[in-house]
Every structure is written in C-alpha cells, then in structure tokens.
Amino acid sequence: MTNDEALARRIFLFINKAWGYGDANPDHYFLAPNYRMSELQGAVGLAQLEKLERAVERRVLLASILTKWLEGVPGIAVPAQPLDARPVYWRYAVRLDPSLIPDGPHGFAAKLKDRSILTAPRYIQKPAFECEVIREQRTFGKSRWPFTLARPEALRYERERYPGVYLGLDGVLVIPWNDRLSIGDVEYIARSIIATARELRRAS
After folding, report:
1. Whole-model pTM?
2. Range of 83's domain?
3. Dist CA 129 CA 157 (whole Å)
4. What would the pLDDT profile of 74-114 be if each residue is shown by its tens digit?
5. What is the CATH number of the domain that holds 59?
6. Bridge partners, residue 28, by sequence
7. Fewest C-beta atoms under 10 Å: which of 20, 63, 182, 198?
8. Does residue 107 lie within any of the structural domains?
9. Distance from CA of residue 184 to its chain's centroid?
10. pLDDT value of position 1
C-alpha cells in the first residue's frame, strides 16, 4: 500500500511491461517484466502443459485448413512454411497486397468485423524501436545498459533506415487463433476473408 500516486502507477506499470493500458497514447515507458500471471493462473497453466502437444497439433491442423482455402486468393498471402521450424500458430497472419487491396489491414478488418470476425490490423501500431523504453533508453535506472554497449550506428532508429519494417506492418492482418475452433469456424473465416478480398478488389 502507498499513498504516493506516482509510485503506485509505476508499480502497476512495472508488472505489465510498463505498457500504459487505458492511456490516451499508450507506450512501453520503461524496461519492465511481464508479471501479469497470478499464482492460481500459474498452477492452472502448469497442469495444462500435459495438453500442450495436442493443442499445438490442433492449431497446426486448423491453420493448414485455412491455408488451403486462402492459397491463390488474389491480394492475400498466407504464412510461409519454414523448412527448419514448426509454427504453432499462436496467431494466424496474412499479408495484404496494397496494389489489390488498397484499404489495407484496417479496411479489411472493418469488413471482417461486420461478419463477427475480430482481427488485429498491423498487430502493433509501431515497431519496438519507436517505443519510449528504447527510444529514450529507459532501462535499469539511469544506466542505459545495455545500450551503452552498442555501437553508435546501431542506436540510430530513423524510419528511412528500416523501410521493410513499415512495409511489413502496413500489410499484415493478424487473426486470433484457437485450438477450440471447429473446422466449420475455420471455413467460415476462410469464406469471409475470400469474400472480403473480392469485395475490396472490386471496389478499387
């Protein structure tokens, strides 16, 4: 307990990545851990580990079904399948071709919302290096560590140095994914994406 409002806010921020949820312009204000999990949630999570492999297999299966539906749809690029890794599909992300879908992720997300499918356009609104914790080097107290170890050119975050980052964000639409989805759910999502892509292509 404290009657110091500034200290109370900092403690509250500290448990959750120093992200200002509810703020007008939230940001990662300083270096902080992700301690949102309670002891009860930790105990439940530990017990759930026995189901992890089955849950991952289900997610992969459902993702493969969606991929088959969406492959070849003009304006939509499905996730690439790396040869040396196995995605677990925490989320399912597609890339939108701006030359075919000029409304981009935000316009696409709005259309899908009309079909009761919630998505995350861009997923994040800005890259990590634009967040306050990195931009202002607010790490361990006033030490600036580990930024003090970096070469000066490594700490230059001008937008023009990273065009691919912004290009990537501008075209990505992230679909929440869950191993409890039914095959019917996945087919509905697929049909909705295909119909939305067709509608937006026709309007462009």
Report:
1. 0.84
2. 51-127+162-203
3. 7
4. 999 999 988 888 899 999 999 999 999 988 999 999 999 99
5. 3.90.1150.10
6. 19
7. 182
8. yes
9. 25
10. 75
